[in-house]
TrEMBL record:
InterPro entries: Ester_Hydrolysis_Enzymes, SGNH_hydro, SGNH_hydro_sf. Gene3D superfamilies: SGNH hydrolase. GO terms for molecular function: hydrolase activity. It comes from Cohnella cellulosilytica. This is SGNH/GDSL hydrolase family protein. It holds the Pfam family Lipase_GDSL_2. Keywords: Hydrolase. It comes from the Bacteria.
């Protein structure tokens, strides 16, 4: 059976089980259910560990963004300023291609207004957010995806369907309905890749 890997931050952790349920019987879906991909350099390390553990994949669906753009006090700039973000995205792309997998990159979901909240996966990290940052990082990632001929799962636009962008109380993560919609769109794109 074909194998799919889901990579990404806590947003991925909100929809990964739904994707697995939707694709049950069609492919095997893998993800790190104990940890999220955090920022792109961490995802680079994590994907290598997952390749060592599980071998070759047919499709990797992946996102990074919120952690990369986060300005975590007392720091005064993002964990990964845009040029570093793109640098690490390129390295992740190279590793996924070395594994032989097709790639789907998912954009970061929109923000209603600037603020901050604790990461909801137990890391204890406070994530700061602004939609201006999201737009800039998404634009850089989409430009790279176009250059690299990578399919983009536009979760940003998908979440705009709701006036509150399917945000839960912390205004960063999503409601259950939002996660289910993300899962449906991700599963559709994954199946399209698997059927090629």
């Amino acid at each position: 059976m074909k194998k799919v890997l889901l990579l990404g931050d806590s947003i991925r952790m909100g929809y990964d089980e739904y994707v697995k349920d939707i694709l049950r019987g069609k492919c095997e879906v893998y993800y790190d259910d104990a940890d999220n991909g955090r920022f792109a350099a961490y995802t680079l390390w994590q994907v290598n560990q997952l390749f060592v553990k599980y071998g070759r994949f047919d499709v990797v669906h992946w996102n990074n963004g919120y952690w990369d753009m986060n300005i975590e006090a007392p720091m005064t700039e993002a964990i990964h300023p845009l040029d570093e973000y793109v640098h690490f995205l390129k390295r992740i792309i190279r590793e996924i291609r070395r594994n032989g997998a097709e790639i789907i990159f998912a954009t970061t979901t929109p923000i209603l207004s600037g603020g901050s909240t604790l990461d909801n996966t137990g890391t204890g990290v406070k994530i700061n957010y602004s939609n201006d940052w999201v737009v800039s990082y998404n634009n850089a990632a989409k430009k790279l995806a176009a250059e690299e001929n990578i399919t983009v799962n536009d979760l940003y636009t998908l979440m705009l369907q709701d006036k509150n962008y399917y945000k839960c109380e912390d205004m960063l993560h999503l409601t259950d309905e939002g996660y289910r919609l993300c899962a449906e769109q991700a599963a559709k794109l994954i199946l399209e890749k698997l059927e090629k």
